[in-house]
Amino acid sequence: ETSSARGVWKYKLMLPVKKEVEPVSLGEGDTPLIPLKSHKRLFVKFEGANPTGSFKDRGMTLAVTIAKYIGAKSVVVASTGNTSASAAAYAAKAGLECLVYLPRGSVARGKLFQALLHGAKVVEVDGNFDEALEEVIARYVDNTQGHVYPLNSVNPWRLEGQKTIAFEIYQQLGFVPENVVVPVGNAGNIYAIWKGFRELREVGVTDRAPRMIGVQAEGASPVFKTWLAKADELLPVERPYTVATAIKIGRPVNWLKALTAVRESNGFMLSVSDATILEALKTLARSEGIGVEPASAAPLAGYRVALEQGLIGQDETTVLVATGHALKDPEVRF
Ligand code: F0G
Hints:
The protein is an alpha/beta fold. It has eleven helices and ten strands. The chain has a six-stranded mixed beta sheet with strand order 1-2-10-7-8-9, sandwiched between helices. The protein is globular and about 50 Å long. The site of ligand F0G has 22 residues, from α2 and α11.
């Protein structure tokens, strides 16, 4: 058995990839679904167990596979950190050059280290993530003369890989849970997971679907605000702030996709304070033995709010998607 037969690539038939395409894989996926002690029907999908420590590897294996297949020589990505860490590793595996645009001073230490470790060329942008992404789009997406392949989540392959989180949750539980809680930043992942559940229904594996619950940090909650106002246009946040640097994003490109996931699934958006994120991080670390970075603790903070407000019940099965590993951000204090 090769590494391509496990994890994400065992779902090759559900991925829109031609048979002859050779995966660029590091064995991503097959992450544990961990039952929590604190609540009976509560589980953590621990994406920190991926090769570079975040769920980004699921999408990156697809996107870099395609980049290599079409003959790209370089890849580029703007990132709050995890996407760049993942891109750097998969580009190294594929023998491609990797260029990453990062918001100066807003990327957790571990993630920056990974990008450099794997040999990416790092460009630090004086501005936040939104500005870094704008620069990448202007230079490499709108300008199609370049031969640099863009890997941001405007790239549809990323979402195709990330939808396998849904397939694994279904297989590990043996059924579709009532709720799936996801931290929302650039807003692609919640849609990707929803797409996965929708496809399980379409192919007749199940007739059920979960509610998708998106959680943002109070200081960086444009999708929450837009959802609450039932607005047709994104209500952006000009100066996003939060301890959860992974999701410190004011103008998420996939905002409409995220709202589609939430609306179609009868779910909802929540915003939580940094203090409750850190409290949740501490609970996961000290009571459950699960080490996550701040963004990945947001779902537990959101779950607590949802329970309190009666938006969901204790008797419902809920999966919290813990998107990134604790070692990503060793400077977090609580
Ligand atoms: N959790 C972690 C740990 C992340 O790194 C991200 C996104 C998210 C949640 C949110 O996922 O953007 O699909 O809504 N990180 C991106 C990056 C922005 O550049 O690494 P999303």
